[in-house]
Design a protein that fits this description.
The C terminus is likely disordered. It contains 5 helices and 7 strands; from the N terminus they run H-E-E-E-H-H-E-H-E-E-E-H. It is an alpha+beta fold. Helix 1 packs across helix 3. It is 28% helix and 25% strand.
Amino acid sequence: MIDQAFIERRVRKAWEYRKAVVDTSSCRIIFGEADFLPGIVIDKFSDVLVVESLALGIDRFKPVIVEKLKQVLAEDGISVRGVYERSDAKVRLKEGMELRKGFIGEPFDTKVEILENGVRYIVDVEDGQKTGFSWIRNTTGWPSRICAGASGRSGSWTASPTQAPLP
C-alpha cells in the first residue's frame, strides 16, 4: 500500500544513500526511478529544494513527498528555506497535466548560492536549466570520495579524453 509511511521510507532511503556517496550541501536527493519514486526529481541547492514532477501518478503524492523530505532533512539539522517547483517539461502535457512553475509555500529569493568542490555558483532555480543547474559537472569529485575507503583502491580515478571509435 502506498501511504505516508511508504513515502517516508523511500525518501529516507534516498537521503541516507546520498549522505553516503555525495556532498549533500547541494545534490540531487530524489532521482525518480533510481530511488523507486518514478517521475519525480528533487534537487537540494543549499537550503532550497527544487521539485520536478513528470508523471500524473507521482504528482498526486508530491505534497507528501516534499513534506516527508523536509522532515527527514530536519532530523539531520537541515532547515529548508523554500521549495520551488519546476514541473514545466512538455512531457507533462502527454499525461494531461498543466505545466507548473512557481513557489510551493512562501516566496524566497530564487538566486541561491552554492559551494561545490571549492567553487561558488549562483543557481537560478526559477529560470536556470531544468531544476536550476546542470549536475553533469558533479561527476568530478565523487569518485575519489567513494573510493577513498575502498579496499584495494587508490582513492582516485583519472581519465584522459579519447576519441571513441566509430561503428
